Amino acid sequence: MKNKKMVSSLVLFIGVCLLGLLFFKDFFTTPTGGDYRNITDLESSYDAEEEVAQALARMKSSQEKANVIMRSNSVQRQVALTFDGLTDRTSVQQILDLLKKHNMKATFFVDGMQTAEDPQTVVNIKKAGHKIENYSLSGMSKMETLPVERVVKDFSRAQKIIKVTTDQGPNLLKCNETQYTDLLLQAAKACGFNSVVKNDVFLNVKQMNSLFAADVFVSKLKPGSIVSVKLKPNIELIVNEPGKTDLRPAVDKQPGLKELPQEVELGEKETIDAVERLLIALSKANYTTVYVEDFANNNSIQKPVKTTSIQNSINNVKKNLNVSLLVTFLQAEVMDLFTYRTAYAAENVDNQAQEIKVISTTEPALSYTFGGLANETVVNDVLTRLHDLGIKATFFVAEVEMKKYPETLRRIIRNGHEIGIAIRPKDGETADETRSTIMRDTKNLQETFGVTTNLVKQPWGGVSDTTKEVISSLGYKLIGQSVNVVQSKHKDYTSADQVMGEIFGKSIFSLSRGQIIHFRMDYYTDARLVGDLLEKIKQHKIDNIAYTTFYDNPASNLANDSQYTIKTIGQILNNSKFTYQYPIDASKIPAHLKHDGPALLIDRHNFLAETSKRYLGNADVTYEDRMLGFSRMETRRFDTSGLVHTKDNVIFLTFDDWGTDAAVNKILYVLHKHNASATFFVLTNNVLNNPNLLRSIAMQGHDIGSHSDKHKPMAVRDPKTGRQVKVQDKVEYFQDLTTAYQKLRNVTGDVIVNGKPALTRFFRPPTLAISKMGIETLFESGYEYIINGSCSTYDYKAQNVPELVETIKEGVYTKNGEIKKGAILTMHMGDSCIYTPTALDILLTANEAKADSDPSKFTVGRLSDYLIDGYSQSNRKSL
């Protein structure tokens, strides 16, 4: 009986084992995924809601950013080889075989969607000994345009899928053709990535068509480069929601042209052949390959987190059995992530020419460009008007126009205008064909017309990556435009005012430094319309930028240099005195300005003491009005004078908010005219739309302070209860403050004036309101002084110049005519403050007319020269 029981038990045990082998065979043959023991279906296996919530929480509590790996500084002949996205399993296996054959390592950046669709391919990559990293959920481009919550979801979900599949979480993240903004780097860090990877060199499969081409490609590599091969074409999902408008920008197609062709996808065989040629060339050049993470500081890379679970094998079986369910799940994920998209600007990819739409310059100049020589009447009219106005412009000429209209081109050249090359690559045109066109045009201009140029423009249509790569390889400049005057709907317009009303609207007061305005001369029905437009734009959008009064006009005063000029693109680009790199080189920023954390050691014990030292108040800001979170006793410690403690006959001019060139340039001219420095408290929400203007302010010797990013006050009065309340919580306010400072630093952080940085850690609170939480957050985010000021001029409400002059004088002098030493005047630089420059000019002119011995004569100082280490607003004897 016992024997029968033992035999039965043995049979049962063997049966269970066989059944287990059948269902859990993957567990014994491949690495298995993580601590997900409660997984019951496909959707829950990739559920990352917990990870998303944790990441968002980390973003609120910390502003820490992921590092960016761009390349290595190693002198060894090493490169990091990466494959971006996934292709079919057979092709990937062929690539793996090639890597093994040539003894090369690679890093595969895989996207979550394709990993879920074909997990075995990813497992095969890992088995072959290569690194697997995160390429986001779908390898989507331009991710900086997504809301941060969507980005966090994307990163977290992709990480979950890859982690389940490979048994470890990737260490690195690479985003496809995406600008790594501070917010995106913060999101990456919050999702667990210490480092993100920025593309260094792309393999152009079309150009890698021979071993010779591969040798040339490798010969140009620098040791430490990151060479990337795209296995997955770009996708850009825009899903229309019911009742909502498609957010994609409309394409203004020129009449008679076909739609631009879609990017031609290369066959897998071409890609594999190109990879093999690359590997052969690398071997011949004695290059070895390393993993991308080897280029990073070891301390910045988290070690893989191993996870184990038999349940993952069940998921693999379920995936194989439920493909349609998986596809449905992934579609839902994509819909959730990408139903909202915003328009984005062209981005500079490392091996592609950046389309220059606005020249990074502080020179008070901009460019007119023209194209289309077919209508000789229009060309002659344009040349006449440019001559009469003293304007030199840049004309872009196509190859066919050089042949058909040589005399017209010679006339343009004789008039002193600059010539550039206009190209319009044909559908499916190769890089070699585009390169040949540009070189033919270059040669023709040199030999036939005696002109040398490195400027290339594609007058209409989207510029392809191939074209950008060709222009970059030739060392030429790709020129775009910030304002395209000619639009299809304007073809039969007869009035320049009609066109300008639709192009500029009511909100664009003026053009800006470095802008490029493009006119097409062979399009309008009315032959005089282009000429009318170039004159009208100059008159109403450029000439209005100058400071012009009856006593100081650029036309009669040679010293008045406030007029913006129209120059050729080459003249502006080649004037190194004014051009700069944007964003600026971080290595040129002083160390103390790079630091994003607290600049002061402040805690609850010394908070009130430090606040009273570093807060320059205002008489109208009191416990009852615009002070929140302080007791009445505490507020008695705070300054209400707004005066800098000094014995000097000095006043300080400050300007808040932001404006166009038309408003700010007038202020800058008046300050320069009187050799006066000021502090500009900049509202940064729109400042990156015109970084040239911000940098110009700094370069002219003025202090740069922050006025927040969104202009949300620390405290407002609730209209229902009458009580003072906060507008945002501490995390939101911290984000606003750090964003504002980072924007200012990216434009002006390297500007040094008289041995001191132009950028300060000064802050002007919106509406002058303060709160305990707000000041705590200010100190935590690195600001050092809160500056309200002694006189609010309310210049935006002034009715005329005399009224504003009197208001400013009341802020400078006592009733007895004595100077209010250390007075800080609060003015504004918005376009509504039309009387501010003139009123200031009158005041400063009158002051200069006084004898130096006159006790009522003042000087204008820089706040940064007085608010220095050791200064205390609570101690009049501190200086």
Unreliable stretches (pLDDT < 50, length at least 5) are: 16-43, 235-266, 298-325, 327-349
Percentage of residues in DSSP E strands? 5-15%
CATH class of the largest domain: Alpha Beta
> Which class do the helix and strand fractions yield?
alpha/beta
Shape: flat
Oligomer category: single chain
- CATH topology-level fold name of the largest domain: TIM Barrel
Largest sheet: 9 strands, parallel
How many distinct beta strands? Answer: 33
Number of domains: 3
Characteristics:
879 residues; alpha/beta; TIM Barrel; nine-stranded parallel beta sheet; 38% helix; flat
Task: Set down the secondary structure blueprint.
Elements: H1 2-29, H2 42-45, H3 49-61, E1 67-69, E2 78-84, H4 89-101, E3 107-110, H5 112-117, H6 119-127, E4 131-134, H7 148-166, E5 172-174, H8 182-190, E6 195-197, E7 201-202, H9 211-219, E8 226-230, H10 268-284, E9 288-290, H11 311-321, H12 323-338, E10 355-356, E11 365-371, H13 376-389, E12 394-398, H14 399-404, H15 406-414, E13 418-422, H16 431-449, E14 455-457, H17 465-474, E15 477-479, E16 483-484, H18 496-504, E17 516-520, H19 529-542, E18 565-566, H20 569-573, H21 591-594, H22 607-614, E19 615-616, E20 627-628, H23 632-635, E21 650-657, H24 661-673, E22 678-682, H25 691-699, E23 703-706, E24 716-717, E25 724-725, H26 730-748, E26 752-753, E27 756-757, E28 759-763, E29 770-771, H27 772-780, E30 785-787, E31 791-792, H28 801-812, E32 823-828, H29 836-848, E33 859-860
Parallel strand pairs: 1-6, 2-3, 2-8, 2-9, 3-4, 5-6, 7-8, 10-15, 11-12, 11-17, 11-18, 12-13, 13-14, 14-15, 16-17, 19-30, 20-29, 21-22, 21-32, 21-33, 22-23, 23-28, 28-30, 31-32
Antiparallel strand pairs: 24-25, 26-27
